[in-house]
Design goal:
With about 260 residues, this protein is an alpha/beta fold. The chain has a single domain, classed as Acetylglutamate kinase-like (Carbamate kinase, 3-Layer(aba) Sandwich), CATH 3.40.1160.10. Helices cover about 35% and strands about 20% of the residues. Strands 1, 2, 3, 4, 5, 6, 7, 8, 9, 10 and 11 form an 11-stranded mixed β-sheet that branches. α1 packs across α3, α5 packs parallel to α7 and α6 runs antiparallel to α7. The longest helix is centred in the first third of the chain and has 25 residues. The two termini are about 15 Å apart. About 45% of the residues are buried.
Length: about 260
């Protein structure tokens, strides 16, 4: 299969590991994640996976628990490590020995510390790199680390996995049946319309470095491999993209790379 992208960041929220529930862990969900990553690997894609932890704890529930948000975010970072350890184990059990878990916070008994040059060496040796703990700081979701690591590690694009939606819409499609899907968007379209796709800081960093984004439904089998091969799944956001709605003239004509 010809490839549009060789190296990508796949951003997985903690929700990807919870299955049909908002919280907790689902073996079936991990199996799906593993199958999707292995399918991409079979097509020669170099994978950097930014792992979320919201299935364990989120910083935005700090008030509910009566704790500071910094502490809640610290707990959430530990959740990303737990997800990362399980995913690493399942990938290895599935026959993928060349997988490394790296964390922004040092915990050498469980994972490697994130060092950019070491991560690049792993990628050059065709290893899958899992990244946990974001950038190791509170008040930052995994959106910004996904953009930062993509730039640092020379990724060709960021693949932003979503659940329950197959792209970016002008309204929440789960609430408003008349919501319309964007096929392509520019960075400024997202910022100007205040579309809650990623943190604005992540969009600004992606724009500064002309980093393409693909927002897609992670439940679609083979989506990662298909996008990397050149198929237009979900919504494309890029440096030369213009605003096109689904059903409009030119819809589906996302740039090739």
């Amino acid at each position: 299969m010809p490839s549009r992208y060789k190296r990508v960041v796949v951003k997985l929220s903690g929700r990807a590991f919870a299955g049909n529930d908002e919280r907790g862990l689902s073996p079936l969900a991990f199996e799906h994640v593993t199958e999707e990553l292995l399918a991409a690997r079979r097509h020669g894609i170099e994978l950097i996976v930014v792992v979320g932890g919201g299935n364990f704890f989120r910083g935005n529930v700090a008030d509910e628990w009566g704790i500071e948000q910094a502490e809640a975010d610290n707990v959430g970072m530990l959740g990303t490590v737990m997800n990362g350890i399980i995913l690493r184990s399942i990938l290895r059990k599935s026959g993928l020995e060349d997988v490394r878990l790296m964390t922004a916070l040092p915990m050498p008994s469980m994972a490697e510390p994130f060092i950019r040059l070491r991560a690049l060496r792993h990628l050059d040796r065709n290893r899958v790199v899992l990244l946990a703990c974001g950038i190791g700081q509170p008040y930052v979701t995994t959106d910004y680390p996904a953009a930062q690591r993509a730039v640092e590690l020379g990724a060709d694009a960021i693949l932003l996995a979503k659940h329950g939606t197959d792209g970016i819409y002008d309204q929440d499609p789960r609430v408003e049946p008349a919501a319309r899907k964007y096929v392509t968007l520019g960075y400024q379209d997202i910022l100007g319309k205040d579309l809650r796709v990623m943190d604005q800081t992540a969009i600004l960093l992606a724009r500064e470095h002309s980093m393409p984004l693909h927002v897609f439904d992670f439940e679609e089998k083979g989506a990662i491999a298909a996008i990397c091969a050149g198929e237009n799944r979900g919504t494309y956001v890029g440096p030369s993209a213009t605003l096109i709605m689904a059903g409009a003239s030119g819809a589906g004509s996302a740039p090739a790379g």
